[in-house]
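REQUEST ID: PR-0412
SUBMITTED BY: lab tech R.K.
PRIORITY: routine
TASK: structure prediction, single protein chain
INPUT:
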Amino acid sequence: MVHNLSDSDSIIGNYLAELRDVDIQKDPLRFRANLERIAEIMAFEISRKLKYKAVDIQTPLGIAPSRVLDEQPVLITILRAGLAMHSGFLRYFDRAESAYVSAYRKHSTPEDFEIYVEYLAAPVLDNRIWIISDPMLATGNSMNAVYDALKQQGSPKKIYIAAGIATKEALDRVSKHFPSNTEIYVAVIDKELTAQSYIVPGLGDAGDLAFGEKV
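STATUS: complete
OUTPUT:
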């Protein structure tokens, strides 16, 4: 199931516009902040799908019946571009555990590349709720490679994928590769993917814009 948050107008459109703007992109602090704010909106939307339990909270004047999360998800991010979105999710799921995965493209030609996963640090993943964040879903190959690495450590109870910009090609590929208990949240879906597997109009390299150009 894919949830496209641009199907209806909301403030997320402002944040996407600034992320794409070549002049505003010159401010990496602003770029990271907009990724974080998109992640916060997605965190709220995903929180509405989770299970809650009833608790009684002692206030200075009495007892307040309340409802709180029944269990904390595991927040999983793909290094390094996903770090800004991860910060946004942590602001909402502030007691959640975190997992970090390094995945990158290794090109043999400008058009041909393989995805390598070199690093994974995670808490217990088996029978947990996974929320995987990454700003860009271009081909979907990185997301699929990350899932293949993660599932070696356990089977998820439920998976939520959160991405800023995605292509239809990537969404189709990820939907086929991930288990049926997966839901995908995207801020917007762009139509074009270049021969070098970059999204158009997209926004460029999210990792470089947020944290500096790679050498």
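NOTES: The longest helix spans residues 28-47.
REVIEWED BY: pending
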